[in-house]
Design a protein that fits this description.
853 residues; alpha/beta; Beta-Lactamase; 5-stranded antiparallel beta sheet; 5-stranded mixed beta sheet; 25 helices; 17 strands; histidine kinase; transmembrane; ATP binding; two-component regulatory system
Length: 853
């Protein structure tokens, strides 16, 4: 490097001399200042100021006496002219005014009390001004009084003269004492400065020694830096302001000079480093280029350089400037990044291949799970329909075996679909109040048959104080526990499985749920492998249990997604203990549960037959779904395409629509969106999405299209009945016992995720119901029209969550069907109930559709 680092060491020995000169100059200035102050004090003593003041004080008494003598001369008749008297008074008046002005200017040469002595003199002379300047007769007449007043004035003047002399004497003494103290202080200060100069000289000598040592260290550092620069892997150039190379290191010589090439010193940097014919080479002069790059670059500049052999290679430039005696110099670091670029390209290619593989795997799993669920829908649906037919014992046993095998296959497909959701990041959690006792009772009840088949006992209990409620995701919590309990049952025969629930103390409250079994156990070196995807402890053909090996891996992923974890107790010698730990959040207020509140959950059969539309292009799926519904007493219309379903929904008022998603031509999402915006007979009818692939993001798209629920294939009959039950209120909700607004239905409306669509449906329903209630008020309305109107509005009211109104209309429809006289139907209170329901619905829709703050 050509950076001149010798300038700093050369100037180092001169630094103590500079500091010493500055210190001596400061001392000289200080001494000069003190001498100036002393001279001014001496000059003050030589002034005749105090003599003039003393003369003025004495003259006050003299002028007073002269004025008194003039008065006496006039009284004795020795002087006739009043002008002399007035002249004497003017002199006296001027003298008093002079003292007043000095006192006002702050001169303290005389100790006058401004409220007594000086004020008395001034007031006295001012009081005599009118008399003196007045007529001569009046002045002559007042001479006796004037003589008397001047006697008192003379006494005050003598007092002023006496105190003035005393004051002047005191001031002189004070000034002499101040001068003496100043001279003494100056002597002390001079001695202190001499001592300070001595100390300063010692310090400067020490600093000089240190600077010499530092100069030697800098020289050694310079040599080390030169060694570092010469051995650096980067090519380093030093250029002047014109972009001409002045120095460079060995790496730069190897790159751009070659073995036998001429030296680079004096060569333009741009011509040396860049290929003149390349398109991206700088076309401006070297100095301008380097200055611009120095000012604007926030990091290394990516360039293409040319070495001594003509090879082009990617490089990075780092540019900075230094200042030396020779002027501004530019330091350039150039690094060959060919190997790094190649490594980055290799990593990018490997990453892209890995991502492509993951996408292919996720797509394969999603497609395969969908393709497997579609035939499973036909298989399991047919088996459920067979169970409703008369069967002998052998046939029922075969159907039961088919049902169990189908359910097992469905659980395997569900595991694969769950893994696909994790890979796609589609898992979403909900947070709500969980009744732990009810949840665990349900898990034990649902797995008891499997445990009994293995001759295992199964139960649960609290360890320590019971924790009855917590805030969590009940569906995911149940899924984790079912995986853990199911795994324990598979590997335990003729034993026991205990579920223990315990609250753990600590900084963060945790809930631990342990699944303890007395099964075969797990060897220590396999304890972590059990949580890997598709992992099985025994992968041989002779293994005793089957499965995909996904259950425990999914359980751990779900637990960590919920802020907890799943693990295996390593201290267990026999059997296994799997634990689930989750953050324990106790609900602020526990809901009050009413045993009399009617259940809307999976009724065995609906109480009111409904008119339903099934839109399904697959013949087997359409047959099974429609047969399920018909056997429950519903009227079913089947549409084999999205376009046909749209046309039927526009033309007819249905109580509910089951819409397949994947259909050729018009898919289910498009059909549902068009039905909602059509204004046809089923524009506000509940629509349920039926699909074999329902990831959370897709379900959000379903809700945005106007579908309130999602039914997964294979269609479970009880789940289907629960969906149908949500489309119309059961009979037990009729009358005044039904709530004005059904909260479950309002929650379904809230999931539509389309406020504009929700408001539009509400407006159409309000207009339709206003007209219907007005028509039902006609006592001459025929029974057929009564039944048709009440059936239509009852379904619409149920869809909008007006449970009490829907129940009342259903009751009117039932009585109209049973009675031969329309006047017997209970319609009198309907307008009042509609008005109350209308206001409540408008408020509820506004709250649902209002955007979140």
């Amino acid at each position: 490097m050509a950076l001149n680092t010798q300038s700093a060491p050369a100037s180092a020995p001169r630094m103590p001399l500079v500091l010493l000169s500055v210190g001596l100059l400061a001392v000289i200035l200080l001494v000069g200042g003190l001498a100036s102050i002393a001279l001014r004090q001496v000059d003050g003593l030589t002034l005749a100021y105090s003599d003039n003041t003393q003369y003025s004080i004495a003259q006050l008494d003299v002028d007073t006496m002269r004025f008194q003598l003039a008065i006496e001369a006039l009284e004795a008749g020795e002087m006739e002219d009043l002008e002399d008297l007035r002249l004497r008074f003017d002199i006296l008046y001027s003298r008093v005014e002079m003292f007043r002005r000095r006192h006002m200017n702050g001169e303290d040469f005389i100790a006058l009390d401004p409220m007594t002595d000086l004020a008395t003199l001034e007031a006295e002379v001012r009081a005599l001004v009118p008399l003196i300047d007045g007529p001569g007769d009046a002045l002559r007449a007042a001479l006796p009084m004037l003589s008397e007043r001047m006697e008192r004035f003379a006494e005050t003047a003598r007092a002023v003269s006496t105190r003035g002399a005393q004051r002047l004497s005191a001031i002189a003494d004070t000034r002499r004492e101040a001068l003496r103290e100043m001279l003494l202080n100056m002597a002390v200060l001079v001695l202190a400065m001499l001592l300070g100069i001595s100390v300063l000289a010692f310090i400067l000598m020490r600093l000089w020694q240190l600077s010499r040592a530092r100069a030697d260290a800098v020289s050694r550092a310079e040599q080390q830096m030169r060694t570092v620069v010469d051995t650096a892997f980067d090519a380093i150039f030093v250029c002047d302001s014109d972009g001409v190379i002045r120095d460079y290191n060995n790496t730069a010589a190897r790159m751009f000079q070659g073995d036998d090439g001429p030296g680079l010193t004096g060569q333009p940097f741009i011509d040396t480093v860049f290929d003149p014919v390349q398109t991206d080479a700088p076309s401006i002069d070297p100095g301008t280029f380097l200055a611009a790059a120095t000012d604007e670059s926030g990091g290394p500049l990516a360039v293409s350089a040319r070495d001594a052999e003509g090879r082009m290679f990617p490089a990075e430039l780092s540019i900075d400037q230094v200042h030396s005696k020779a002027g501004r110099m530019t330091v350039i670091f150039l690094r060959d990044v060919s190997e790094r670029r190649q490594a980055e390209a290799d990593l990018t290619q490997a990453r892209d291949q890995a991502l492509a593989g993951e996408r292919t795997k996720a797509q394969f799993l999603a497609v395969m799970s969908h393709e497997m669920r579609t035939p499973l829908n036909g298989l399991l649906g047919t088996v459920q329909l067979l169970e409703d037919t008369p069967l002998d014992t052998g046939q029922r046993s075969l159907v039961k075996t088919m049902r169990g095998s189908g359910d097992h296959l469905l659980s395997l497909v569900n595991d694969i679909l769950e893994l696909t959701e994790f890979e796609a990041g589609e898992i979403r959690l909900e947070s709500t109040e969980v009744d732990l006792a009810q949840l665990l009772n349900g898990i034990v009840a649902s797995t008891r048959a499997l445990a009994e088949a293995q001759h295992d006992s199964l139960g649960w209990r609290f360890i320590g104080p019971p924790v009855m409620h917590m805030v969590s995701d009940p569906r995911r919590l149940r899924q984790i526990l079912l995986n853990l309990v199911g795994n324990a049952i598979k590997f335990t025969r003729d034993g026991s499985i205990d579920i223990e629930v315990e609250r753990l103390s600590g900084v963060t409250p945790m809930l631990e749920i342990r699944v303890c079994d007395t099964g075969v156990g797990i060897v220590p070196d396999q304890r972590e492998n059990v949580f890997m995807d598709f992992a099985r402890i025994d992968s041989s053909y002779a293994r005793q249990v089957g499965g995909t090996g996904l259950g425990l891996g999914i359980a751990r992923r779900l637990a960590r997604l919920m802020g907890g974890d799943v693990g295996l107790d390593p201290a267990r010698e026999t059997g296994s203990v799997f634990w689930l730990r989750l953050p324990l959040e106790i609900p602020a207020t526990l809901p009050v549960r009413s045993d009399t509140r009617p259940s809307r959950k999976a009724p065995s059969a609906p109480t009111v037959p409904l008119d339903l539309l099934v839109v399904e292009d697959n013949q087997v799926n359409a047959m099974i779904l429609s047969e399920f519904l018909r056997r429950d007493g519903h009227t079913v219309t089947v549409a084999r395409s999205g376009q046909e379903g749209l046309e039927r929904a526009r033309a007819t008022r249905f109580d509910g629509i089951f819409m397949d998603i994947s259909m050729p031509g018009m898919d289910g999402i498009t059909a549902a969106r068009l039905i909602r915006g059509s204004g046809g007979g089923s524009a506000d009818t509940p629509i349920v999405a039926v699909t074999a692939h329902a990831l959370p993001s897709e379900q959000a798209e379903f809700r945005a299209a106007g579908m309130s629920e999602t039914l997964s294939k294979p269609v479970d009959r009880e789940r289907l009945r629960a969906c149908v039950a949500g489309m119309a209120p059961p009979v037990e909700l009729a009358g005044q016992d039904a709530p004005l607004l059904d909260p479950d239905r309002l929650n379904q409306l809230r999931r539509l995720s389309n406020p504009a669509l929700l408001r539009d449906l509400c407006q159409k329903f309000l207009a339709e119901t206003d007209a219907a209630v007005a028509t039902l008020g006609d006592p001459e309305l025929p029974l057929d029209a009564t039944r048709e109107i009440t059936h239509k509005i009852a379904s619409s009211a149920a869809a909008m969550g007006l449970a009490r109104l829907s129940a009342r209309l259903s009751e009117i429809e039932r009585q109209a069907k049973q009675s031969g006289d329309a006047a017997q139907t209970p319609r009198e209170s309907l307008p009042e109930l509609w008005a109350e329901s209308r206001a409540a619905l408008v408020d509820a829709i506004e709250q649902i559709a209002r955007p979140a703050a």
